[in-house]
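User: Working on a comparison across species. This one is RagB/SusD family nutrient uptake outer membrane protein from Chitinophaga oryziterrae. Can you predict its structure so I can line it up against the others?
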Amino acid sequence: MQPKILLYTTLIITMVSCKKIVAIDPPKSELVINTVFSSDAIAEQAIAGLYASLLAGYASGDLTSITYLAGLSSDELIPGSGGGIDFYNNAILSNNAVISTLWSDPYKEIYIANSILKGLNLQTTNISQTLRQQLSGEARFVRAFSYFCLINLFGDVPLTLTTDYNINENIARTSKEVVYDQIITDLKDAQNLLSGDYIKNERVRANKWVATALLARVYLYRGQWSDAEIQASAVIGNNATFNFCPLDKVFLMNSNEAIWQLSRVDANSADAATFVISATNPVNATIRPSVVASFDPADKRKTSWITSRTYNGNTYYYPTKYKATEVTPVTEYTTILRLAEQYLIRAEARVWQGKLTVAASDISVLRRRAGLANITASTKEAMLAMIEKERVFELFTEWGHRWFDLKRSPSLTIAGNTRADDLLKPLEKSWQSTDTLYPIPLDQLLKDPAMANAQNPGY
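Assistant: Here's the predicted structure for RagB/SusD family nutrient uptake outer membrane protein from Chitinophaga oryziterrae:
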């Protein structure tokens, strides 16, 4: 990387590190934007910086990641001595430093994305039309992904689509549904702007299929069943690009199942280093024994993706989806979107539409790869229960899927409650329904006048 390109990339990332979380000092940012978008080469580095910023925070796979923290909040993980007990007990304080990071990191990506979009629209921008379209689609995708994470962690959040500090320094929370509308708009725009090809055959930058896969998930979360089925089917139908591979190869760099991954610079994903137990007692987190016991003994996902160690008479289970604990050689990328989830999305969307037979077929595809028998269509309730279990077996310790599923799925016993109430209340005496949302960071409430009295209930 040339020194000037590195300098401009660093500037566009670090200009979000100011005292206000969603507000940026305007003179410096205007200067950087005009400089960064003076050529194709430098603009390419700006988008590379956006992905690098993702990996430096909540997408890292380390102890500050959504995978780790949301796994503790659900019924998936048990903390070791490395921290996270407040997430495990769902007793998080608003001045928690990690909560502040979970809030501010996505807003860093949103600001960078907004800056890129602004720069691409400048009349003085000396960027080719093809690259302008590509970078615009990528920026819109990352903005949508960042907002998806924010609203599923915090609920209503400020919706900022600008770099204007006059707006960002005093902005109220926006309804979650309005934010979802913007996410869908961004993802549809990304679909239209991006090609279906991966750049340099590396699955680490957004393309049309990446946007489509996230859009399928968004529609599922919103209960737009037909739309979710259509988008998931589009990804599944692209079997020239996406195919299942053996379980021990799913999380390898550029695997056939990967839709979107992130790559660290000359290093493996941090997930293995976070979870794999070495020759000492468990430090970070282990899988709940009840989760391990829920697997069919013949399920190959259990034998391939879970390993145990015994210390002082106690057996600990840990995920081995990622196995490369050393920094190099690089064999594993952080996998964010993959094919198996699209089958789960389509199956659930089909059940809600009464398409039980084809939904059962989707689940059977995953079960056959795991060495299990096909299932047959049953009642709607039985199928939804099976899909809930299959999502655990397939997606455990990935990107907070279990935590988000518990929050979005209705209770089986009490109207208005969620599956989180059903399953976490027996595990945590202090559980409250309001715990499904994390607290808004205290520093955000103090610095943003429009949010002064906008804390989530229960905190």
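For your comparison, note: Residues 1-63+93-194+430-459 form a domain with the Serine Threonine Protein Phosphatase 5, Tetratricopeptide repeat fold (CATH 1.25.40.890).

User: Helpful, thanks.
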